[in-house]
Design brief:
Radius of gyration: 22 Å
Strand content: under 5%
Number of helices: 11
Number of strands: 2
Helix content: 55-70%
Structural class: mainly alpha
CATH superfamily of the largest domain: GntR ligand-binding domain-like
Distance between the termini: 48 Å
Largest sheet: 2 strands, antiparallel
Order of helices and strands: HHHEEHHHHHHHH
CATH architecture of the largest domain: Up-down Bundle
Number of domains: 2
Mean pLDDT: 89
């Protein structure tokens, strides 16, 4: 009699994973934000109150708040409480967050390898039309930031203009293959407090070097910019291996 086929590891009979307590706390905090109609700039209830209301430890509350902070949904002001950064508190699952944290360093490595070279070549090969595109991208980013935005579209246009100015079809093709990953790293960087204005200033330094035809300065300025892009809250976060308290129903 033939042996039954083994169940696929990713099929419907795959092992069930236990939802961590702080993951459920994250969902309850999102529900609280929605139910109370909290908006960007509003303060969440104190940690002690949340722990008492949910019947969990303050450690679980802290872990949940860190997840919301890493996702760019809240800002923790030391000694001043936790404040919403967006009107909505919906976000990715913990598994998606962990996966994004895993791949981000590789994306940033690729960006550094490609974009420092592109900046150097752009300083050597740029045309008047290229410089006009770079300036237009900078102006677009300024407008977005002045309007209270993060400048993501201007940021995207700036890096695209530098890539075009380098006149390297192969490097441009490499950039296109990781376009979605670059967009994700851009969003992660620009959601950091104070980062849009900092990125704009760094873009202006890169643009000045390209305009001046200084390849060494263009490469150095791009490397400094991408080093800043690496400084994000997500990469400082270590997903907890275990809950700080036994699982319970929320």
């Amino acid at each position: 009699m033939p042996e039954p086929a083994p169940a696929e590891a990713d099929g419907p009979l795959r092992p069930l994973s236990r939802t961590r307590l702080y993951e459920r706390v994250v969902e309850r905090l999102r529900e609280l934000i929605a139910d109370r109609g909290l908006r960007a700039g509003d303060r969440l209830p104190p940690e002690r109150e949340l722990a008492e209301r949910l019947g969990v430890s303050r450690a679980s509350i802290r872990q949940a708040v860190v997840v919301l902070e890493v996702q760019g949904l809240v800002e923790v002001r030391h000694g001043g409480g936790t404040y919403l950064r967006r009107d909505r508190a919906d976000g990715e699952s913990l598994d998606e967050l962990v996966e994004r944290r895993r791949r981000l360093p590789e994306v940033l490595d690729a960006r550094e390898g490609l974009e420092t070279e592109l900046a150097e070549l752009a300083a050597q090969r740029r045309t008047a039309a290229d410089l006009a595109a770079v300036e237009a991208a900078l102006e677009r980013m300024r407008e977005q930031i002045d309007a209270g935005g993060r400048g993501e579209d201007g940021d995207r246009r700036f890096h695209a203009a530098v890539t075009a100015a380098a006149r390297s079809g192969l490097l441009a093709e490499f950039m296109r293959t990781i376009d979605a990953a670059i967009a994700e790293s851009r969003q992660e960087s620009l959601r950091q407090p104070g980062r849009p204005a900092q990125s704009l200033a760094q873009h202006e330094r890169i643009a000045a070097a390209v305009r001046a035809g200084d390849p060494d300065e263009a490469r150095a300025a791009m490397r400094e910019h991408l080093a800043t892009v690496r400084r994000v809250r997500l990469l400082q976060w270590e997903p907890p291996a275990d809950d700080p308290e036994p699982p319970r129903e929320l």
